[in-house]
Design a protein that fits this description.
One of its GO terms (cellular component) is nucleus. The chain is of the alpha+beta class. It is built from 37 helices and 39 strands.
Length: 1186
């Protein structure tokens, strides 16, 4: 398993989501087929909301294929009940009962009868996969494995069984259920998490969120009335059976309101003057029910319009099991072309994942997807670790520009929990190594607001911080020809990077870090073991071109000599073993000849019947139930501690965390190297009577070298296990057996339950793409500490005849910046363009010219300075005949809720919302100064526009906005805002805009002359800007029109014909194509009938705030709301780490860097660097006011 094995102590059931629904296709092209993988999927809110947002416009033709994975079978069982109810006729009439079934703890008779009837039907249809696939729901609802269907059937049978018991049994069940509900609710004060679902209006939802939570848990129903109707008395069977046991075990934080978009109820509807404070809890609940009804109706409509002779446009596939295993199984199935995989269904389970041959077999004409262009990981980020997620999802993420991996963090509100800490390394460095990077990190903004999190942190009980990130293939913003984007790093630096990752992944073994965690009362959740680290190395190995053996030898030496991780060497043997098993590297002492030589000399008793020893062996430990049972209360009290095994000798101790566990009985056959073992799982698990069986891989030489060894099951020491250590001793042992005890310890050549045809363990690798060995690539140079990337170097071979002649004749190549990610090398009148995976600075490039050998080597510093962005920060990229957006999600404007501007007091949330575009650093830059940051300039213009459009800046919003460069009186674009709307899926506000570029055509001039009288100074606001900001707006408007596009690009689209996007950066020509001009302008004419002549010339666009990134710099500090008079320069992305602003060199302390004597902000490593940077720095270098 990619994650350490956790003891399941106190567990919870999560049947209902705890974050608002999002559109899972928002980063895809409008008609692009969506192959979506949901890991830790939870309830189906994202699916039904995605179907709803794709129900109109171009998206209506999109095919949706969802694969849903959850460890909790009861979650999937409930989801299937919902989808099948929606597929049945009359779903709309039964909408209230469907709501009750899905969200209520207690049901009325009609809802209960509908549920039981549906469960009976599902039981009849689910005897096997063939029966299900040929049934009435098989055309759109599929099971990935037979085990999944069997588990769901077991649960549906339990639901039905609750109606077949005697009156006394029924009464006992109802009493126990009610008692469990009462005992499960939160024991602390108000639970306000549902207020998060109100997004930017969450400050108005606090009280109602707390009230609803109390009503929900007191009554068991979603209501504004604190009393449950007498007829609502039946326990909801779908909440009575789960991995928690045959009991109600729903998590105490559950609240159905969390799933929806409460801002729709709080924002004043168009035509209304109601203040959000006047919204009632009944209004909130009613809006949630309406949203659920709309979403469900969309699903029913899609399924009801199905043509029996064609594939369903909506397919939902279900898998019950572990997310990490499932990803590895899908990858293995695709590469091995087999539906039988080598990955267990889940931790504490013995069966391996066997995919349905009818869906995943090679003979299928339309097989189920095994790669995906959307992978949503829910909040597994918190539960399994982001590196584990990337390691298993990266190989199955499609290599397309629009492919996106979504992660969500929800666990901790601590500001110290930065993304870099979770990644165990610098964000840019890890992105280069792993091939995935948050798009917003590169662009330095996001369209998704987290204002609700800033408001939550103002409350006393804020313990969470919600952050949703969209990860893209690195280099996609420039459409690299190879989206796997191979890189070259010197072996010594790569070894240094690996060692830093190693130290960070296992920081819980650092004594100083552990003591700090104890002082801060941190739990010290551990997500990684040595196999996790090796799987990361395996991903990197397939991406880099380097001397791999030299890299690994240097890393090996660093780990052997490490003194930071006090217990690090205890896991050294496991590390070497996993390096071998995953085919990453073999240390010298693990070679087969050395193992055989030791065996020939030593001949330990346990190997008396072995003829040949392999490099690695599987050790199986059987823990008798009577020895484990007394420890269960102490283990449960420790929460979810990590289990591990130790091999302890007289003077040695080696620990192994990559273990497998299951409750069951073991049967062995054969002896010596022919010995095999079969485990029969006890499905009652910890509640049964079977022993606990544990197995793990070890280097053979470890067993041969030591004559007296014990095999120990123990608990990994963390701050959370202190109480357990007080009772069990500092070694945290659970059970110990001698290696020679043949009743309790078995040594095998293969793992238990391995068939005769099972491939060797070292063939089980994560990805199928081969290791890069040659080819054009970017050479990456890191800083001396091997933490952050400094420069890219690439070699350009000159082969074009004219360029060769220019070079040999002595011409000096010119390097021009083409975009943030690309350069052009100019020789004579010819040029070559080269893209790079991250932004670069061509102005600081250095050249090495080999005129005789006809090549040029270019060294380019990276450009990752906060605030230092070019005008092309909104990439729109051709993709498969369509256009892809790299860092701005698509919006269905007609599904975004418009709100009223009539009552300014009801808009008190607008200015704080748009103000979060500015980081605290940006706020301190006085508005009258030149910022030197194109992004900040755009943000300030957007802030002005939203202030005007909302009517908060002046009494009445203007009719028109005219943008022009300050040095040029000519207006380059005009646009008209018809509505401000709520993009509820992103908790943001957007402007429904109609854009008219100032391109000189007779028709446009004639139309404008007819409306000119309506566009006087009082009705038009002019926004002045510099040339670079003007260029940025031309890029932005292209992206803005593309984001909400409901029309198709024509065959003669200017983007296609001219082959460039935007079409121009000149102020007197149109940057956007004409395909959308005049399309869907009915709402424009309705809002502004006096501007009807302009309708054929305007194109709809969506303009939204560009929010600052709270994981990169401080955002939303109340003390910084008022800008000071002190200017601040654009800060390095890690200014707190004391980085030279010129070369990026990192220092351990500020004393070792020179500080600018004028602004007292920017630091340099030398006077040379300061002189080199002065040309750019002097624009924003301002002395602090006294």
């Amino acid at each position: 398993m990619a994650h350490p094995v956790l003891w399941r102590g106190k567990t919870f059931f999560y049947p209902i989501g705890n974050t608002s629904a999002v559109c899972l296709t928002q980063d895809l092209c409008p008609t692009e087929k969506a192959d979506v993988l949901l890991l830790g999927c939870g309830d189906p809110r994202h699916i039904i909301y995605t179907v709803y947002t794709n129900s109109t416009g171009l998206q209506a033709s999109r095919k949706l294929d969802f694969t849903c994975c959850d460890l909790e079978g009861a979650v999937i069982a409930r989801n299937v009940i919902l989808f099948t109810l929606l597929a049945d006729e009359g779903a709309a009439e039964r909408a209230p009962q469907i709501w009750n079934i899905f969200f209520h703890f207690f049901l009325d008779k009609a809802s209960h009868d509908l549920l039981i009837s549906q469960c009976r039907k599902l039981v009849e249809l689910s005897s096997d996969l063939d029966s299900w696939n040929n049934g009435p729901y098989g055309y759109f609802l599929r099971m990935c494995t037979g085990d999944t269907l069997a588990e769901l059937r077991r649960l549906w049978q339990l639901h039905v069984k609750t109606t077949a018991c005697s009156p006394s049994e029924a009464k006992a069940f109802e009493s126990a259920y009610a008692a469990d509900v009462k005992a499960s609710r939160a024991k602390f004060g108000s639970v306000l998490t549902a207020s998060r679902a109100a997004g930017p209006l969450s400050m108005y939802a606090f009280e109602m969120a707390g009230d609803h939570y109390n009503i929900y848990w007191d009554t068991g129903i979603c209501s504004a009335v604190p009393k449950r109707p007498s007829e609502v008395s039946r326990p909801n069977p779908t909440l009575a059976f789960s991995m928690v046991g045959d009991k109600f075990g729903v998590h105490y934080g559950t609240d159905p309101l969390c799933c929806f978009h409460l801002a729709e109820a709080l924002a004043p509807a168009v035509g209304s003057t109601r203040h959000p404070d006047q919204c009632t809890l009944k209004d909130i609940v009613d809006v949630c029910k309406k949203q659920f009804s709309r979403w469900c109706a969309s699903v029913s409509k899609v399924l009801g319009s199905q043509n029996p002779s064609s594939p369903s446009p909506l397919i939902i596939r279900c898998f019950v099991g572990d997310a990490l295993s499932f990803c590895q199984a899908l990858c293995y199935s695709r590469t091995a072309k087999s539906t039988s995989t080598l990955f267990p269904v889940a931790p504490w389970k013995i069966p391996y994942i066997a995919l349905d041959p009818s869906a995943y077999g090679t003979s299928r004409q339309s097989p189920a997807p095994t790669t995906f262009n959307v992978i949503d990981t829910s909040n597994l980020f918190d539960h399994v670790g982001v590196l584990n997620l990337i390691a298993v999802t990266s190989p199955i993420l499609q290599r397309t520009l629009s492919a996106t991996l979504y992660t969500e963090g929800l666990a901790s509100g601590s500001p110290e929990d930065t993304l870099a800490e979770h990644l165990c390394g610098d964000i840019a460095t890890m992105g280069l190594l792993l091939g995935l990077i948050p798009a917003c990190f590169v662009s330095q903004f996001t369209n998704r607001s987290n204002m609700h999190e800033h408001i939550m942190r103002l409350s006393d009980n804020a313990t969470q911080n919600h952050e949703r990130l969209a990860w893209k293939l690195i280099g996609g913003a420039e459409k690299l020809t190879d989206l796997d984007c191979p890189i070259d790093i010197a072996a010594e630096q790569l070894a240094g990077v690996f060692f830093n990752i190693y130290l960070n992944m296992f920081s819980h073994e650092n004594v100083r870090r552990r003591l700090a965690m104890v002082k801060q009362s941190l739990s010290g959740i551990v997500h990684y073991h040595r196999r996790s680290f090796v799987e990361i190395l395996s991903v990197v190995k397939r991406r880099v071109i380097t001397d791999w053996d030299s890299t690994m030898n240097m890393l090996h030496d660093k780990i052997q000599n490490d003194r930071i991780l006090i217990t690090g060497m205890n896991f050294y043997q496991e590390l070497c073993c996993q390096l071998h098993l995953l085919g990453v590297f073999d240390v010298d002492w693990l070679s087969l000849p050395k193992v055989q030589e030791v065996h020939r000399v030593e001949r330990p008793f346990v190997f008396r019947n072995w003829k040949v020893l392999p490099k690695t062996l599987c050790v199986v430990l059987v823990v008798p139930r009577d020895r484990l049972q007394p420890l269960l209360p102490d283990l449960d009290e420790a929460g979810t501690p990590v289990l591990q095994c130790d091999l302890r000798g007289t003077a040695t101790q080696n620990a192994f965390s990559a273990i497998s566990t299951v409750f069951g009985s073991i049967t062995t056959s054969g002896q010596g190297d022919g010995k095999t073992a079969v485990i029969k799982e006890d499905t009652t698990g910890r509640y049964g009577t079977s022993p606990l069986v544990v197995w793990f891989w070890v280097p053979t030489i470890v067993l041969v070298n030591e004559r007296c060894l014990s095999v120990v099951l123990s608990v990994l020491s963390t701050p959370a296990t202190c109480a357990f250590a007080m009772k069990r001793g500092l070694d945290l042992s659970i059970f110990c057996a001698d290696l020679g005890d043949e009743q309790l310890v078995h040594i095998l050549r293969q793992h238990p339950n391995a068939g005769p045809e099972s491939p060797k363990e070292n063939n089980v690798q994560i990805g199928d793409r081969p290791m890069k060995t040659s080819g054009a690539c970017t050479f990456v140079t890191l800083d001396k500490e091997c933490k952050t990337p400094l420069t890219f170097t690439t070699r350009v071979d000159i082969v074009e005849p004219d360029m060769k002649a220019s070079l040999t004749s002595g011409a000096t190549p010119i390097v021009n910046q083409v975009s943030m990610h690309s350069i052009a090398i100019v020789l004579g009148d010819k040029s070559l363009q080269f893209p790079f995976p991250l932004p670069i600075d061509a102005k600081k490039s250095k050249l090495r010219i080999a005129r005789k050998l006809l090549y040029i080597e270019i060294i380019l510093p990276l450009r990752l300075i906060l605030g230092d962005t070019d005008s092309d920060m909104f990439p729109v990229i051709p993709h498969g005949g369509d256009l892809a957006l790299w860092n701005m999600h698509r919006v269905n404007l007609d599904h975004c809720i418009p709100f009223s501007l009539a009552n300014k007091r009801a808009l008190g949330w607008v200015n704080p919302h748009v103000s979060l575009m500015m980081s605290d650093r940006e706020r301190r830059i006085p508005s009258e100064l030149t910022t030197g940051s194109t992004l900040l300039d755009v943000k300030r213009s957007l802030h002005f526009i939203f202030g005007q459009a909302s009517g908060l800046a002046e009494d009445k919003p203007p009719l028109c906005y005219a943008l022009r460069a300050k040095d040029d009186e000519e207006i380059f674009v005009m646009f008209y805002i018809t509505n401000l709307r709520l993009d509820v899926g992103s908790h943001s506000m957007v402007a429904d805009t109609w854009v008219m570029p100032s391109s000189p055509t007779f028709e446009k001039a004639e139309a404008f002359s007819k409306v000119f009288t309506h566009l006087g100074p009082s009705n038009m606001k002019t926004v002045g800007m510099g040339v670079e900001e003007r260029k940025a707006w031309q890029h932005l408007l292209v992206a803005a029109t593309e984001r909400c596009r409901t029309w198709e690009h024509k065959t003669n689209c200017e983007y296609r014909v001219q082959g460039v996007i935007p079409l121009t950066l000149e102020p007197d020509e149109s940057a956007i194509c004409s395909c959308g001009a005049g399309v869907g302008t009915e709402s424009f004419v309705k809002k502004y009938p006096m501007l009807r002549p302009l309708a054929p010339h305007v194109t709809r666009a969506v303009i939204s705030p560009l929010f600052a990134l709270s994981y990169l710099e401080k955002v939303g500090s109340l003390q910084d709301n008022v800008a000071s008079s002190t200017a601040s320069t654009p800060a390095p992305a890690a200014v707190v780490r004391n980085v030279c602003a010129a070369c990026g060199k990192e220092s351990g302390g500020s004393a070792s860097l020179l500080i600018c004597s004028r602004c007292k902000v920017v630091r340099y490593c030398s006077q040379g660097c300061q002189r080199e940077d002065w040309k750019g720095h002097k624009k924003s270098c301002v002395a602090p006011s006294s």
